[in-house]
Amino acid sequence: MPGTLVAMPGVLPEGEPVPVDGSLPATATRAVGARGFGVYVHVPFCASRCGYCDFNTYTAAELGGGASRAAYADAVLAELALAGRVLGDTPPPAVDTVFVGGGTPTLLPADDLARILDGIDRTWGLAPGAEVTTEANPESVTPGSLKALRAAGYTRISLGMQSAAPGVLAILDRTHRAGRATEAAIEAREAGFDHVNLDLIYGTPGERAEDFAASLDQVVAAGVDHVSAYALIVEDGTRLAARMRRGELPYPSDDVAADRYLAAEAALGAAGFSWYEVSNWARTPAARCRHNLLYWTGADWWGLGPGAHSHVGGVRWWNVKHPAAYARRLAAGESPGLAREVLAPAEAHMEDVMLRLRLASGLPLDALDQAGRTAARRALADGLLAGPEFAAGRAVLTLRGRLLADAVVRDLLP
């Protein structure tokens, strides 16, 4: 399918230990930020857990002792100080993008989110015109909090709408009322946010075609300049997966998800949006999420917070998952990094092909080996790659190719 709902995985991968001081190999820090540099901040708190959620997040009841929302900003600033020391001799030119995700970042006071952003600016400096995003649930913001965030320097907000249908929201265990997401989007625009995104999930059991059409209509009417739409994926260990195993709900249908994707492309295209990544549409090039583009094009970023992933110069590492363990390590002056891996050239190439092919800008054909170029010609003949772009030396997915993006990637790789 063209897109699936993704975030930090519930189970972290294995890897070699991260040094106690968080230091990186000299080879990794020689050209930090040459392709751009971003900062991701993970806020692992939620008021309640959605039935589909397998992300590294915690409700108050799940959090336990040794961690609190009140002390969280200080812990993040402690990791930021460590990051500043690690990159001290080879700092990035500046921070191009900041993305605060979760969880629900806006459960933290706006003052805490402002302090974190100020700390990033003091550590490395924000580039002129830097994109600064926070995620939010619609019920977790008010006109006043939005104005405070905008005054603090946040330029972009991403709101978790998921659906306009009350029944679909109930199946997903979303707590905001239908219509609140679009209200919050309008409030964000009135607060002065440069860019506003609404997230949709499609293919939820029980969702009708008219439910999704109504969601798309509301998104367009809200006047946002960016939309993300992901097919629901059912993760083991979630409440939704348990309900499906018991037969209370049917499993998602790939055919239905394909129909929903085509509906999204038609409705958003008619409203002036253009796809720039398989699951993302923007009204203008300036509205594209620059932070995610850093991920998709192999740039560097430092991830702050429990479970957060980072990538600098071909080294990828991830932090301990639980907020209490994260806070303990930083209080002891140690890196919260749990493990890391150095990407081999073949792994880096595979990821580059996987990610760039999902972009509207596509993949240079000369990035493929001979077998890959042969497979690309087959994909062209099958209508999965666009002819004019292919003739110009790039592999760019057609609409049909977007529906089969994962299969196309598999064919192009050795």
From TrEMBL:
Which terms are listed as keywords in the entry?
4Fe-4S, Chaperone, Cytoplasm, Heme, Iron, Iron-sulfur, Metal-binding, S-adenosyl-L-methionine
Q: Name one GO biological process term.
A: porphyrin-containing compound biosynthetic process
The answer on whether this UniProt entry bears the keyword NADP reads no
Keyword Magnesium among UniProt keywords: no
Gene3D superfamilies named in the record = Aldolase class I
Q: Name one GO molecular function term.
A: metal ion binding
Q: Which residues form the Radical SAM core domain?
A: 31-274
Cellular location(s):
Cytoplasm
Sorted alphabetically, which Pfam families does this protein's record hold? Radical_SAM
Which PROSITE patterns does the annotation name?
RADICAL_SAM
Q: What's an example GO cellular component term for this entry?
A: cytoplasm
Entry superkingdom: Bacteria
Write out the function statement from the record: Probably acts as a heme chaperone, transferring heme to an unknown acceptor. Binds one molecule of heme per monomer, possibly covalently. Binds 1 [4Fe-4S] cluster. The cluster is coordinated with 3 cysteines and an exchangeable S-adenosyl-L-methionine.
Query: Which family would the database say this protein is a member of?
Result: Belongs to the anaerobic coproporphyrinogen-III oxidase family. HemW subfamily.
Name under which the protein is recorded? Heme chaperone HemW
Species source reads Micromonospora deserti
Q: What is the lineage of its organism?
A: Bacteria, Bacillati, Actinomycetota, Actinomycetes, Micromonosporales
